[in-house]
Amino acid sequence: MISAQQPPFPNKIQRKMDCQSEEEETCEEQYDSENCTCSSEHTESDTGSPVTLKILQNWVPRVSHYFDKEHYTYVGHQIVIQESIEHFGAVVWPGALALSQYLESNQEQFNLKDKKVLEIGAGTGLLSIVACILGAYVTATDLPEVLENLSYNISRNTQNLNMHKPEVRKLVWGEGLNEDFPVSTYHYDFILATDVVYHHGALDPLLATMVHFCKPGTVLLWANKFRFSTDYEFLEKVCNIFNTTVLAEFPESNVKLLKATVRKN
């Protein structure tokens, strides 16, 4: 069952919305090791914590893959995002802008300070950066090919802004969840997901990933641009599994923001 918590509200999402519509039609389809832990797979040390990988220590975006730098201001901080032409996850999409704005504007309702936050499909890292600035323990995840640019952006934008060092990890939806993120060890207060419904062959693994991480006490915040009937079919599946509430809608970008929690038996 889906319920509406509040009507749409004016937002300050900028030029990014306008320039992405054409892109979506054609593509439906210095990392600082002291500041950001990057784990490409769940390897544990004797203490049980992920081993820091330093293979990205000197990585910077390659000129051949350079796309653009976007500047944003959230929570009083300027954020510079390096984009890339290589992957879907290397571009800032409307859902990330919408949820970043919402978290900034609703800090009393969703207080992230000292909370454990997992972002699935973190992409360029904008939303994880905002969550980090808001004081959360952040774990940003995405496909292996996205991690370099993701790590670079998070590192350069979170230095000295949060006492909790953000972590970047590989996560392929539906794969190795029990091995890499055992429920007995990993519990998150918030799961963040934006514009993750874009590759319709991956929707069942995406749903399985949401179910794996969303336990009693966890809040899933999902923002997505709804384009096709299959997007709404996925929304229906989410509503059948979780208690779901529409928090906001952004008509100019067709983005809906939803909150989901585990159903009580």
TrEMBL record:
GO molecular function: methyltransferase activity
Cited CDD domains: AdoMet_MTases
Alphabetized UniProt keyword annotations: Methyltransferase, S-adenosyl-L-methionine, Transferase
GO biological process per UniProt: methylation
InterPro entries linked to this entry: Methyltransf_16, SAM-dependent_MTases_sf
Name of one Pfam family that matches: Methyltransf_16
Entry annotated with the keyword S-adenosyl-L-methionine: yes
Record SUPFAM superfamilies: S-adenosyl-L-methionine-dependent methyltransferases (SSF53335)
Protein name: Methyltransferase like 21C
